[in-house]
Design a protein that fits this description.
With 240 residues, the protein is of the alpha+beta class. The protein has one domain (3-30, 68-238). Helix content is 65%, strand content 14%. It contains 8 helices and 2 strands, in the order αββααααααα. It has helices at 3-28, 71-75, 79-107, 116-141, 151-162, 166-184, 192-204, 212-238, and strands at 32-48, 51-66. Strands 1-2 form a two-stranded antiparallel ribbon. It is globular. The protein starts with a helix and ends with a helix. 25% of the residues are buried.
């Protein structure tokens, strides 16, 4: 499997994640101003139904921007709507991984003596096992931070693992989708998990709302620093 296929897969997973946020916003009646893939300057855009769909220059994520005047207007939304909006992105990635494992189970030969119940729950078991593996690896990063991977490392290792094999590509898609879900649920602003924690905290103590901007900026700087460290490490490992 070519490295380009892994890059394309990452783009699809980011799109699915942001689509989850978009659908949730529509369901709870939160207006959307922009649906963007990537960050930074807009390379291409089109406005449909009042929503500006954008492709941005830095392909390291994406965002769905509510059509609200400011952060205070967002914080004025009911807590349930804000939590659903934040949770929907990671949930979409989990559902996609579940669908991948379901497709893989359907494509694989049926073991002798297998029951329909066993076949039905196998995708859920595989999803749970993968989540457990990812969480174990995440815990290990606190003791061995040098093991963190950047997009360079993910593409390099993903391309080696898939090796032009459709089944392996499906496994990789499920694993990366779940990894994206777990990463976004970390309790760090401006990630989805950080937003959920902050939303609950401001519900308990409204004065915390004034700390959102500095906390989000601090979180962004920490994440950018980690990404830079991981990228330099992976470029040295795979490209030099």
């Amino acid at each position: 499997m070519s490295y380009a296929a892994v890059v394309a897969l990452l783009g699809v997973l980011i799109f699915i994640h942001e689509l989850g946020h978009f659908v949730a916003a529509r369901l709870v009646g939160v207006p959307i101003a922009r649906f963007a893939l990537g960050f930074g300057p807009v390379v291409a855009s089109r406005t449909v139904g009042g929503v500006r769909y954008c492709l941005c220059a830095v392909p390291l994520g994406g965002y769905v921007l509510p059509d609200l005047p400011d952060e205070r207007a967002y914080l004025a939304l009911p807590l349930g709507k804000r939590l659903l909006f934040s949770l929907a992105g990671p949930l979409a990635n989990v559902l996609f991984a579940l669908a991948c494992y379901g497709a893989l189970c359907l494509a694989a030969p049926i073991p002798v003596g297998a029951t329909w119940l066993g076949l039905a729950i196998k995708p859920f078991l595989l999803t749970g096992q993968t989540l457990a593996t990812i969480l174990t690896g995440l815990a290990g990063l606190f003791h061995h931070p040098a093991q963190v991977s950047s997009v360079v490392g993910i593409v390099a290792e993903g391309g080696r693992f898939a090796q032009a094999d459709a089944m392996r590509y499906g496994i990789l898609a499920a694993h990366l989708s779940l990894s994206l879900a777990v990463f976004n649920l970390l309790p760090v602003l401006p990630l989805d998990g950080g937003k959920m924690v902050f939303d609950v905290a401001t519900r308990l103590w409204s004065r915390l709302s004034r700390l959102y901007l500095p906390a989000a900026v601090g979180g962004w700087l920490a994440l950018l620093g980690l990404m830079l460290f991981a990228t330099v490490q992976d470029v040295w490992k795979y490209c030099l």
